[in-house]
Design a protein that fits this description.
about 90 residues
């Protein structure tokens, strides 16, 4: 058996050993035993980090420039994406 599959199987056994918390709902207990295979990601129009950083900048001054670099990268990405949107 593939090493990663073996590790996944052992982890699954460790997580499912012992008593589960009684929820009273059999379907809910079954869903808790099934590991998620997919991850859902939602792309937003606005970056919440940028929005929050701008809000905090109205209240205080930053000590270092780490958020400046992040804001610059975010602005560059936004500028790169805008021409694509206009063409569609």
């Amino acid at each position: 058996m593939d090493e990663s599959k073996e590790l996944e199987r052992r982890l699954s056994e460790m997580l499912t050993e012992g008593e589960m918390e009684e929820s009273g709902d059999a379907n809910k207990r079954e869903r808790q035993l099934i590991p998620p295979k997919y991850e859902v990601r939602i792309q937003t129009e606005r970056d919440p980090i940028v929005e929050e950083t701008l809000m905090y900048r109205n209240m205080a001054r930053e000590v270092d420039d780490r958020y400046d670099r992040y804001l610059e990268r975010s602005a560059e990405k936004k500028n790169e994406a805008e021409p694509e949107r206009k063409d569609h």
